[in-house]
UniProtKB/TrEMBL annotation:
Keyword terms: Membrane, Transmembrane, Transmembrane helix
InterPro entries: Acyl_transf_3_dom, O2_lipid_transport_reg
This protein's record includes keyword Membrane: yes
The UniProt record lists the keyword RNA-binding: no
Protein's UniProt name: O-acyltransferase like protein
Organism the protein comes from: Nephila pilipes (Giant wood spider)
Transmembrane segments: 14-31, 43-64, 84-105, 117-138, 150-172
Amino acid sequence: LTKKTANLVYFRPYPHLGAYCVGLALGYILWKHHKWSLNKLTQTVGWMTSATSCLAVLFATYSWSRGNTADAVEGVIYAVLHRTAWAAGVAWVLFVCAVGHGGVLNKFLSWQLFTPLSRLCYSIYLLHFPILWIRISWRRSLVPFHHYDIITEFFGVLMITLVLSVFFHLAFEAPFLKLEQIWFPEKSKTTEVKKPLENAHTT
């Protein structure tokens, strides 16, 4: 990861525009129509399309990761579409779980153990990139690639991000959420009314 790549890809809004649009479209669909009746064929096609798009994003760069030079056209197509394709695949999972067709997956994702992580997800999102950036900026020599090194570095960055996100959530996010409940009590009451309905719908 170079400074040029970070400035052109990660810090600019337009590379992520496709994923934003997918999220907005999903939110609008679920807000506009709460009940959806999906037959077996629709569910099968949806799951196959979702799995295909996500797997294509993961494995399309396999040959490039092995040292082969990417074709210019293939590189452009992947750079333009891979975020949108991944977001669309994940959006299908969220959609079927929200409308009551998630089955075992919905029960797993609704597991109470994930509740603390759901409260930390925004802090994790904000903190993970600065931690990665600091980690990379400290390097003064080339690091040999090995799966063990990648795995240990991944879990190291993950644990540091989780620990810092707890403090970040308690120091910033949680107080502002409490202030929002104090300043806008009607909004908080509306949210409390919606939660039992959503829980009843998912169960």
